[in-house]
Amino acid sequence: MYSIEYSKNSRNNLNEIFIYINNDNSLASINVINNILNTINYLKDFSNLWLKYKNWLRKLVNSKHKFTIIYKIDEEKQTIIIVSIFKYKNTF
């Protein structure tokens, strides 16, 4: 089982998502963030199932809330590093 680490950029992404949604609906902001984090937790057991994206990166899609999660795998440390989280229409 892999561990999950978040880059500074991905933590900022989560914070921005939370703040943006929280302006309209505080309960929804908590639910969306929890759903994204639960999706990321799948990577602990199934890190290689998702699409390769730009060389050493992979892409996981959270279809419920339309977010894309970019991550890399450090096989040596048995760690998944979350690089970026953004809406489908954004670019990486």
Give me the secondary-structure topology.
Blueprint: E1 3-6, H1 8-22, H2 26-41, H3 43-46, E2 51-53, E3 57-62, E4 67-74, E5 79-87
Helix pairs in contact: 1-2
Verbal overview:
Helix 1 (8-22) packs antiparallel against helix 2 (26-41). 17% of the residues are buried. The mean pLDDT is 89. This protein is 38% helix and 33% strand. It has three helices and five strands. Strands 1-5-4-3-2 form a five-stranded mixed sheet. It has a single domain, classed as RelE-like (YaeB-like fold), CATH 3.30.2310.20. It has helices at residues 8-22, 26-41, 43-46; strands spanning 3-6, 51-53, 57-62, 67-74, 79-87. The longest helix has 16 residues, at 26-41. With 92 residues, it is of the alpha+beta class.
Named CATH topology: YaeB-like fold
Whole-number mean pLDDT: 89
Spatial sequence of strands, sheet with the most strands: 1-5-4-3-2
Q: Helix coverage percent of residues?
A: 25-40%
Shape: elongated
Q: Which structural class do you get from the secondary structure elements?
A: alpha+beta
- Please write the string of helix (H) and strand (E) elements: EHHHEEEE
Summarize this entry quickly.
The protein has 3 helices and 5 strands, in the order βαααββββ. With 92 residues, the chain is α+β, with helices and mostly antiparallel strands. Helix 1 (8-22) runs antiparallel to helix 2 (26-41).
Give keywords.
alpha+beta; 5-stranded mixed β-sheet; 92 residues; YaeB-like fold
